[in-house]
Amino acid sequence: MRVALFVTCLNDALYPATGVATVRLLERLGVTVDFPSAQTCCGQPQFNTGYRRETEPLVRRTVRAFEGYEYVVTPSGSCAAMVRHHYGRFGTEAAELGPRTYELSEFLVDVLGVTDVGASFPHRVTYHPSCHGLRLLGLGERPRRLLEAVRGLELVELPGAEECCGFGGTFAVKNPDVSAAMGADKVRHAVSTGAGVLCGGDNSCLMHLGGMLSRQEEPLRALHLAEILASTEEEPWREESGR
What we know:
Elements (H helix, E strand, L loop, with lengths): L1 E4 L3 H6 L1 H13 L3 E3 L9 H5 L3 H14 L6 E3 L2 H10 L5 H4 L5 E3 H8 L12 E5 L2 H6 L5 H7 L5 E3 L14 H4 L1 H17 L4 E4 L2 H13 L5 E4 H5 L14
Parallel strand pairs: 1-2, 1-3, 3-4, 5-6, 5-7, 7-8
């Protein structure tokens, strides 16, 4: 099977380890991964802020970049939701990309039919489901099923897991006080679990929460799901090389 990696601009610019982990994971499972170099931003920040005219060229560019691929896989529920649920507003060609675009966990579970990806991660982990993955994509238990199959991983419940972390893209810029208060609630709940790692499927949420955790000097690391699933006994995740 050959797929295209939609790494997203946030991961490409700030969290390249997530993109590398996604490729390692998929290749370990026998998938050939291409990286169309023409990809840039999917247009979500502009679209969410109401700038439809500015969004359209980015949509067209994204559609061209992934033309011809049966599967487009992204380690971002947020960007997957943008393509699947909003690209249809930009014409038939853009709408056709939606059904071919998969968030990483749903591609693993629904397309490849696996939950045990051969990962090993001997740490205590709590999982934060992002709003786009939870509500727009309906990822449900897929990420948790993948985590539960990881060797050595202890998964603990996150109180208030389905509450928004407060990032919300441009929401955090327009409403910083509310965003920070919501993030503080999420961080408090995460710390209360006693976990060493806060896992999520969107680095936008993890950037927001990880920044708060860092400033509070909490012994809790924010880490993308792909980086946990890519970790094995032979190639373990090393904290000193993480974010």
